[in-house]
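Researcher: Here's a chain I'd like modeled. Treat it as a single chain, no partners, no ligands.
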Amino acid sequence: MTSPKLETADELVALYSDMEQLKAYRYTQPIVSQKGIDNEKFHMDLPYEEIRTIVASCGAALLARVPEGEREGLRWEHVGSTSIEGMPGAMMPDALLVLPSFPPSKAVVQALLDCGYYFSSSSHLDPKDLWWFLVFTSGLLEDHKLTVHVSTAACTSARILLDCRDMCRDEPWAFEDYKAAKVEAAKGTWGEYKKDKGSNSKLLAMLREKHGLGK
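Model: Modeled as a single isolated chain. C-alpha cells:
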C-alpha cells in the first residue's frame, strides 16, 4: 500500500525528523509512457556523455535553487551505472546529493520540490538515504527517472555508491565483475534485475562487508 504523497517542505522535514515514520513511508508514482517508451530496457551501450551532461545540468539547476549560504555545504555526484563509461544498464541515472548533516534543511527540501522532484522513500540499507525522483518529460531520457540519493557522506549507501563508481572507473577487475553481474541479472524480469544485479558481484559483496552490511 502506497503512502500519501507529501508535497510541502514542512511535511517532509517533519517526516525526516521521525525515524520510525520515515522507515514506514513508501510513495510510488509509476510512469505510464504515452509514447510506448520502454524505460526498463537494458542497454549494452549507454550514451554516457549525453547522460553525464543531463545529470550535471540537473545538479546545477538544483543547487542554484538553494540559498547561497547553504549551497557551499552541498555536493552533487553522478553515481550508478550511467556514471561509469562503458557500463551497461538502463537509462535511469542516479545522483547523490551530499548533505553536511541529516536531515536536510527546509531550504534544500524546498529546492528539490521547486525543481520538480518528489520524495518516494528511504533506503532499506540505510534510512538516512532519502530517495527523490525526477521524471523527464522530454529529450533523450523522456519517461525515464533520475534517482537522487539525499544523504550525508557518512551514510552507508552513499559510501557504497561512491566506492563502486570509483573502483569501476579505476580498476579493470571491478568494472568487469560488476558488468558481468548486471548482464546476468538482466536476463530476468525488471523486478528480478533490480533485486539481483548485485547479488553475483564480488565487488558489491566486498563493499557491503567493508561498510558493515555483511557478505
